[in-house]
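Fold these two proteins, one after the other.
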Amino acid sequence: MGEKRGYKIFKIIMLIILVAFVTFIITAVGTYQFLKDNDKLGKTLVVTSSDNGEIASELSKYKMLIDKYFLGEVNEEKLKEGAIKGYIEGLDDQYTEYISKEDMKDYLEETTGNFVGIGIYMVKDTNSNKVMVLSPIKGSPAEKAGILPGDLIISVDGVQYSADDMSVAANKIKGEAGSTVKLELLRGTENLNFELIRENIKVNPVEGKVLQNNIGYIKFSSFDEETSKEFKTKYEELKSQGIKSLIIDLRNNGGGIVSEALSIADYILEKDKVMLYEVDKNNNEKIEKSKEDPIINMPIVILTNSNTASSSEILAGALKDHEKAKIVGTKTYGKGVIQQLMTLQDGSGLKITSEEYLTPNKTKINKIGIEPDEKIELPEELKNKLTIEEKDDTQLQKAIEMLK
C-alpha cells in the first residue's frame, strides 16, 4: 500500500456491506485490491453500441407498447437503469452488479476512512434470502443497541428488503449523523425492532493484548487501508511486552483490501514465497510473492469461523500452506473470486467477477472454504454473542493450549 493514491482497478473479493454508514464492499463480504497508478478510482470505460442489435430490438418493442398503452408518466432514465440492472442480474452472479451514477460516489468513498451510520457489516444470506448482520462494529450504535451477528434484516423504516436488495437496503440505512433509522430484525423466531441514531463511525481498529504464558493476541474485523501498518505497530507493542507466540483472531472478519492481507502475510513468510494465485477466465495466472524478509518469527495460531471470508481466507490460506500457522475454529466462508469495479463514461459503474484466487498450494477456496487444523465449535449459546469471556471461548482456549 505504499504506492501513490490513485486507483486504476478496484478489485473486490467479497460483497460485504459496511453500514457504519452504509456499504462496505466484502468485501463483501467485500475484499478489494487497489492498483495505484492513476488519479481515478476504477477504470473508466467508453462503451459503444454493438453491431448485434438484438437486445435493442427487443427493448424497442416494449418501449412501443409502453408509449402506446401505459397510463402513467414514463421516466426514461429509470427505464434505462432498470433494463441495465436486469441484464446484469441475468448473469446470476451474486457479486456482479450494476451501480447507478447516483450510488457510485458513495460506493467509492466508503472504502476508506470513517463513515456515518449505525455500524454493521452485512452479507447476503442465501438460505433465508435476507440481508444478514455479519457483525456490528465495536462501539457503534448497532452494538450498543444489542444487534448481534446472525440477525436477519426484515425491513428498514418499514420497507422490506430481500438479499438481492442489499445495496438498496444499505443506502436506506445510511444517512446524516444525528438522524434516526428504524430496523426490524429476525433473531431465530423472534422479531425485534430497533430505532437507532446514526453516528460518525471509526471502523476496524486493530486490537491486541497479552494473554497468559506470554501469548500475544491480535484481532481486527476487516482489512482496510493502513490495517497492515496498524497490525505491525500492535505486534511490535506486544513483542516489547515479551510475547513468545501469537494468536491472530480472524473470526467474523469478512475481508477488505487484498494488498493489506498480503502485507501481513509478508511480515511472516520468507522472501519470494508465493502468497496468492489470481486466475482469469483465460487461465492466465498472476502470482503474488512475498517481497521482504519476515519480521515475525514465532508460533502462530489463527482463529476462524464461518464468517471468516475473502482477504481473511487469503491470509489464513497463505500461512497454512507454508506451515507458518495452525488454524483453530470452524471452516471459513468460502469467498474466493475477485471483482473489478469499473466506472463508465456516464458515471455509473459495473462491479464484475473477473478472477478467482487460489492459495499457494493452488487450493480452491470459492464455495469451499478453508478447513481448520483443529475443528473447535463454540458452545451453542455463545455462537451469536459479540463478547465472550476468555474462559468460555473454547476456540481461544484451544489456541492457548496449543501455544503453551
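Now the second one:
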Amino acid sequence: MASVPLKRLDGIEICRGLAAMLVVLYHASRHIDKALGMHFIRQIFQFGHSGVDLFFVISGFIIFYIHGQDIGKKDKLFSYVKKRFIRIMPLYWIAMLITFIIAVLGKHQTPVAIQFLWQFFLLPANGGMILDVAWTLKFEVLFYMLFAILITNKLAGTLLLAAWYGMAILSLTISNYVINIPHQFYDAYVLEFMFGIMAAIIIKKYKKHIPDYAIYVGITFFMISAILEDLNIIDGYKNAARLMYGISSMMIIISVASFKQNIQKNIFSKFLFVLGDATYSVYLFQFILIGITWKFLSIGNIGRELDPGVQFVIISAIAIFGGIWISFLIEKPTIMFTKKIFDNLINKNNSTKNYYSR
C-alpha cells in the first residue's frame, strides 16, 4: 500500500475541535435543562453527543493513517504503546483523581477498590465510571490494544479486529442484543473505528480522485442526522444513529483529509485548530469545569439575575476555554514529563545492557 506523508492534517484537527465543542454544548445544555428546566436549549443541542461518533471515526483514521505501515513489525510495538500511553493515561489519571476527590468531599458514592483499579486502567467493563465521560476511553483503549496485536502479528490482529467488528455487526441484527461481557466488545460504536480505518485506506489509495466538493455531501448527511434527532424522528442513542453519524463522519474525514485547497485562515478556523489541539483536556475536564462554574453562579443572586441562555453560554465558554487553558498548563507539560521519564528509563536500560556486554 502506498504511504502518504505523515504531515499534520489541519482539517482533521479542526474536526476534532468541532467534535469537542459539540460534546461540551450537549452536556452544558443538559445541565441547564436539569437545573432550570430549559428543555428548548437542550433540544437544540441534543445531537451534540454525535461529537463522540466523530471522535471515534477520527481515532480509527489517525491510528491506521500513522501506524498502518507498522502492521506486522514487532520492533514498532514499543514506540506505538509509548505514544498511546503518554497521550491517554497521565492526563486521564489527573482528571479521574480530581473527580474522585470531589466525589469524596461531596460525600457521593465512590467505587470499591477493585472497581477503582479497573477504571484506573480503563479496562473493559459495564457500568458507570468516576469520571463519567471516560466511558469512551474504554473503547479507545480496547481499540489500541487490538491494534497493538496487529502490529505484533498481522494475522492474529486481523482476526481479532474482524471478530470485534463482526460482533458489532451482529449486535445490529439482533434485537435487544445482550451478552454477559462488557459492551465495549460488541457495541455499535465499535463500527466507527472501522469507518475510520476505511477512511484512512481510501485516503492512502484514492486521495487524488476525491473531489473537494465531496465534503458538502458528508456535512449534509451529518446535519440531516442531527436534525432528525433534534426533531425526535430518530433516537440518537440507538444503533441506527451510530451508523448515520458514523458513516457521515467517515465521509467528512475522507473529504477533509483529501482536501487539495488550503484551509482559509480566519479567527474561527484558528480557534478550532487550537481547540482541536486541546480536545483531550476539554473533553476530560468539561464536567469539572461545568460543575465549578455552576457552583459559582449559584452563589447569592449571581445566577438568578442572569438569563438561562446567558448562563448556558457562560458554562459552555468556561468549559471550552478552561479546557484549552488546562491543555497548555497541565496536559502538555504532563506529556513532556512522562516522555522524559520513558526516555530516561530507555537510556538507563541501554546503558546497563552496554555495561554487561563489555
